[in-house]
Design goal:
By secondary structure, the protein is mainly alpha-helical. Helix content is 73%, strand content 1%. A two-stranded antiparallel ribbon has the order 1-2. The protein is globular.
Amino acid sequence: MLLTVIQSLAEPLNFLLMIAGTIIGIVFGAIPGLSNVTAQALLLPLSFAMKADTAIIFMSSIFVGGVSGGLISAILMGVPGSPANIATCFDGHPMAKKGRASRALGISIFSSFIATLASIAVAMLVCEPVARVAVKMGPWEFFSLCACAIVLVVSISKGNMFSGLISAGLGMLLGCVGIAPVDAAKRFTFGITSLLGGMPLLSVTLGIFAIASLLHNFARGDMASPDIDTGNIRGIGFTMKEYWAHAKLVVNSFLIGLGIGFLPGMGAGLSNVVAYAAAKSSSENPEKFGTGCDEGIIASEVSNNAAVGGAIIPMIALGIPGDTSTALLISALMIQGIEAGPNLMRNNTQLVYIFFAALLLSGVVTFLLECFGTRTFPYILRVPTCYLYSAIFMICMTGAYANGNSYSYCYITVAMVVIGLLMAFGNLPLSPFILGFILGPMMEEYLRKGMTYSTNGFLIFLQRPASLCFLAIAVFFLFWPLLRGRRESRKQRQGIKTELDMITEQADSYNVSED
């Protein structure tokens, strides 16, 4: 079996297509408005003329390259190449603006590499048993998980939880646009046909994170290009000792990404934001996050690439796509007349192992290509900002139009720009908003289904052990910042009291000595 897999990957056509697919994935992932999903959708028809193993190698290499490629634009431009890299912007771009672009890229590339390889190795080992657990989860568990995820991200706004809750609520409200689940009622469409399918995620992401940020920077006069640190850089910008000092964070973020990745419909777009929130909540210095710290980059890039292996698990074992990318991979299999599901590993064992091997090798190729470009990518920042910002704006609007082949998507993007600027003016955090927008419709659907299937109303959500566990975690993280603040205030008061007692004792001893 191993020899057959090696022969398939070493075949010149397959190997060249793997390299080409990885490059295409990186390029599409790095361009705001495009993503590995776009590349997979555009190139899927080519798989008609390929053999089964060639097709799956080509499509899987695009998948791996695209998820990692989004870090380039997130760090250098502050614009996520895809929703999987939203949290990378929070610390990656500030670090680049401080003149440490190569370090930010090096940490991201290495985090992406180790998480991809480790998650695929886990998928190979625990594919079927873990998928069995996931498929047993019902709408009650998924509702509670979504609520827990939103609360985790709201907890990012420590000291300003109210703003985080408002932002998440606005995102959930925007997610209500379109046709309602279960009863198919039209909501907030105002007679606009383009809104029947809801607000497009790409337009929301581009408007809120990309164009609004450009206009905000322009209004503040923040147009200066940072210095490039490639002259004195060695290796990939950091030492292994520095990186593995955060080993606990790497493991935690990996587990979050892997766990969220294997739950159908979740994926890397959710895992990177949740892992970032968890990292900030557990940090001893949460104020560093958002200023260009290593921990924020590691949490985001480890988790979103760990979701790659996680999404593969339900795809292989059950035929259920973990996200849009794996749905397109299933389509590539179907084109070849192969059905994904429980019988795939039994009837097409060789193809499954070729698929896993292709994912692993694509991860290595992606790492090498991105390491080679580490000293080249930062020079994008030397492009005059008037040209760079104009190019980003045109790319974003082109991507918005290409998403639905309609000018209405461009209008929606402009509307999101206005909302993004108003949120910046009101000092509302963006991450709770985007997560509320993504998970709001899911929560509503799971809630209504769960209530429909139950005769005990909402009590069923507390009677299911997994659901109760997720809700308990949500309540804990919702009140933990308040409890933590009170505990710190108590410690501070005790410290002041101790100092006053010491001063009093010194004063008494001084008076005694005078006497």
